[in-house]
Specification:
The protein is α/β, with parallel strands linked by helices. The chain has helices at 2-20, 27-39, 59-62, 67-70, 84-93, 131-142, 178-194, 217-227, 295-307, 326-342, and strands at residues 41-45, 98-104, 145-151, 201-205, 232-235, 248-251, 273-277, 310-316, 350-351, 360-365, 368-373, 380-383, 390-395, 403-407, 410-414, 424-430. The strands form three sheets. It has an eight-stranded parallel β-sheet with strand order 5-4-3-2-1-8-7-6, sandwiched between helices. Helix 5 (84-93) crosses helix 6 (131-142), helix 5 (84-93) packs across helix 10 (326-342) and helix 7 runs parallel beside helix 8 (217-227). The longest helix is centred in the N-terminal third of the chain and has 19 residues, at 2-20.
Length: 431
């Protein structure tokens, strides 16, 4: 009996200790999560020496280039048109609240002044400027938060070994110690979180390259939260969130969808959500990719994300000179014009009580429900609202009243004509 009691006591101690080790976010972190939920719109920026080849950020491995020769691209990287203030102003004018920048992508080239490797924009290029320092200063000046994309993959360092499923045909010699690579990443993350002021979040990518590796994520996440407790952590691993993560992202999909084929196992969590999407078909600059989505499509994606309780992180791939492609600038300007009218129906809202429909989505804020009609070929719309007392229903754009009738099935809106706006918003105010 005594031995049984001791065994049970030890088991309880183990369970208790395990529970104590679970991640508990700080109050600052929880506050930033709510800010993130309210923000709804951010800019993703994929930019590095791969931009010089104008064939996307995966060109090194996709084209099986020799990695030693690829490194020499840094010798000619001089982005004379780079202007951090202009980047941030374009984002702000579009209605965006944060920027997520590729501090280091899979090719292993660091876009900041790191002491952990000379393979970076300050030491290896004639440009000699720390673009992240300038971007951080511009974000602070204009009131946007700065997030860092950080690659778990590295096609350059020998200690990223054993190799994952990518970057295998680039002429590298198999060698290296995995623990050295983990220490390298921790040292770089420490630099990013101590040298550039308050950081909104770290956006990890690449776990999927070696899902069976000992990534030591708990150690890495603990380091980040110790350095900046409010810093949000997300990981693009296409799974349900791991302990220690603060938001969940969906690559080229809205939560609950799997059109891009990445989200089959991405169980939707209660964490803040984000969908990331390209304006054309590629993330990094591609000279042959002129297949830009229309402004209407991009606004529908933004509205769809909000109606599914998610942010939209919309990508720009700057040219090697550091300027944004004209197509990106035009679309962002047009989205910004739309946001100046309709932004309050998106930002600061949560998903509405009516889930995603073929005709559109709903968002809500306080006692207001915003009905976003994106695709309707008739002048009536039945909303399954039966348990709310309505004060007013109006067209959001011009504040004119919408005629409606109450039925057993809900509220039947009489719109007057078939909606033709990019997003015809009806505002319902409850008593």
């Amino acid at each position: 009996m005594k031995n049984t009691f001791i065994t049970m006591l030890l088991l309880l101690i183990v369970v208790f200790c395990s529970a104590q080790e679970k991640y508990v976010p700080s109050q600052e972190n929880l506050t930033n999560r709510e800010w993130f939920r309210d923000a709804k719109f951010g800019m993703f920026i994929h930019w590095g020496i791969y931009s010089m080849l104008a064939d996307g950020e995966w060109v090194l491995t996709n084209k099986s280039l020799n990695e030693a020769e690829y490194q020499k691209l840094a010798d000619g990287f001089y982005p004379s048109k780079f202007n951090a203030d202009e980047w941030v102003r374009i984002a702000k004018d579009a209605g965006m609240k944060y920027i997520c920048f590729t501090s280091r992508h899979h090719d292993g080239f660091s876009m900041f002044d790191t002491k952990q490797s000379d393979y970076n924009i300050v030491k290896a290029t004639p440009f000699k400027r720390d673009v992240i320092k300038e971007l951080a200063e511009a974000c602070q000046k204009h009131g946007l938060k700065l997030f860092f994309y950080y690659s778990h993959i590295d096609w350059h360092r020998p200690d990223y070994y054993p190799w994952g499923r990518t970057g295998r045909n680039t002429g590298r010699t198999p060698s290296g110690t995995w623990e050295d690579y983990l220490k390298f990443m921790d040292a770089q993350l420490t630099e990013l979180l101590t040298n550039y002021g308050p950081i909104g979040g770290i956006w990890f990518d690449g776990w999927w390259d070696k899902p069976d590796a000992d990534w030591q994520l708990e150690r890495q996440y603990t380091l980040i939260h110790r350095l900046q407790p409010g810093c949000l952590i997300g990981n693009n691993h296409h799974k349900a969130p791991f302990d220690g993560e603060d938001f969940q992202m969906f690559e080229r999909d809205l939560p609950g969808q799997n059109k891009a084929g990445y989200s089959a196992d991405a169980e939707i969590s209660a964490l803040p959500l984000e969908s990331c999407e390209t304006m054309n078909n590629t993330w990094g600059y591609n000279i042959n990719d002129r297949n830009f989505k229309s402004t209407k499509q991009l606004i529908h994606t933004l509205v769809g994300a909000a109606g599914n309780n998610a942010n939209l992180l919309l990508n720009v791939g700057p040219r090697p000179g550091g300027d944004f492609p004209e197509g990106s600038v035009t679309h962002l300007k047009e989205i910004g014009e739309w946001m100046r009218t309709y932004g309050e129906t998106i930002q600061g809202t949560r998903a509405g009580t009516i889930p995603h429909q073929d005709w559109g989505v709903t968002t809500q804020k306080g006692n207001k429900l915003y009905v976003h009609i994106l695709n309707l070929n008739k002048d009536q719309l039945l909303l399954p609202i039966t348990n709310k007392k309505v004060k007013t229903i109006m067209h959001f754009k011009d504040k004119t009243p919408v005629k409606y009738t109450k039925t057993k099935e809900g509220i039947l809106l009489q719109l007057g004509s078939v909606p033709t706006d990019i997003d015809h918003v009806v505002e319902i105010t409850y008593r």
